[in-house]
Amino acid sequence: MPTTVPAHGPDAAARLASMSDVTSSDAALRRFLHGLPGVDAVGLEARAASLGTRSIKTTAKAYAIDLAISMIDLTTLEGADTPGKVRALCAKGVTPDPTDRTAPQVAAICVYPDMAAIAKESLGASGVRVASVATAFPAGRAALPVKLADTADAVAAGADEVDMVIDRGAFLSGRYLKVFEEIKAVKEACLRPGGGAARLKVIFETGELATYDNIRRASWLGMLAGADFIKTSTGKVAVNATPANTLLMLEAVRDFRAATGVQIGVKPAGGIRSSKDAIKFLVLVNETVGDEWLSNEWFRFGASSLLNDLLMQRQKLSTGRYSGPNYVTVD
Fold this sequence. Notes:
This protein is α/β, with parallel strands linked by helices. The protein has helices spanning 12-17, 26-34, 41-51, 58-70, 83-94, 116-123, 144-156, 168-172, 176-189, 212-225, 243-260, 275-288, 306-319, and strands at residues 72-75, 108-111, 129-134, 161-165, 199-203, 229-231, 265-267, 301-303.
């Protein structure tokens, strides 16, 4: 699995380097971010709603359900998490439906850093990745050395991916360079001493950013700082992933690749619970950035309950009968 995003052309590195002036100072970064085109909120929400009405039937629906399962970061981020719960979740991620071994594996198991080693051991050579939240998740209220130690602990425990939260207070007060430097520092903490690195997902907590313009600015800020993925939310606030904020972030990664030649992933997280919702998000991906993003290398769902509904819908398509929640495990 690649640990850095690939270049999509021989001049990609040069084009990315040419943007270094943008991040040379707080003033330069502010000029760039506030110079991005303003977001037409009405148009954005109308397009997201329109794409959500697309009807997906029969074989296309079956394909979409399996694709969505393969994109899930199956998540447990509770204070009451235990080693036994994490092992059970790993077993479910590897074999989502024990009655049907054709069901795909999930992309990753997402846990707190102190559970990363348990997840790594439990997943073994299955191919399912270990994702660990870090940087004082979910609030991000900690000094930088603490955040870096949190990240280093997760990587040392075997995390293949790290989900960090930005300092929303710094961002909302216009201290963009502080946020940029923190993301860069965490990216460096994802490096392994023996070579390679964990992929970095940067969480914006879009529900706290107040405006679509801020979400666009945060997306570009995260990508310029080295994010491998940009992620909507922690799942710990009232407003998490929505079709509109995910569409806006998809537009940002599309435009970033056009400008730099570098591809970045997107991860909506929180509040996506049904197969119908997941398929709507896949339509957004297909219509906005195309099928190059339609794999778990570049698109993920952060979810804990979505998998069960996908499995029930999958069983209904294969048997003609709706099995109900008693036929899937409780996470």
